[in-house]
Predict the 3D structure of the following.
Amino acid sequence: MESILGNKPLVSAFTAMVLAQLLKIIFNLFLEGKVVVERATSTGGMPSSHAATVTALATSVAIVHGTASTYFAISFVLAGIVIFDAVGVRRAAGRHAEVLNEWSTILSEIYEHGVKPANLKTLLGHTFPQVIAGTALGIFLGTLMTLYI
């Protein structure tokens, strides 16, 4: 029986996800001058771990099974849906959260005795550069992990 560690597409995808999340801490250090460990477990940010994960998976599946395989078709469609969701739907939800937080602050100031609700999380989706960086990372790691490790 083959070990789960022998499943190159799975190992490639997992490695891309972990590395992308760790890179978020490093990018945050350069941009804001401080280490924020919580960035490793949060959504949004540079690079997109969603894009890196599904792209590494699709790249590795293409190498192992070929681009004409059903496995590649499944992983390719999954990657498209996840990336579209990250840059579209989740980004819009983050923008909505920003507006709701702003209204919450305004209403709290108007009604001083009201309960101040907690702010909604606004960093949900990704920008195009974040998705492109995640995609490039995924292609690189998917290729590296499948062919050379």
Q: What stands out?
A: DSSP finds four helices and no strands in the chain. The radius of gyration is 19 Å.
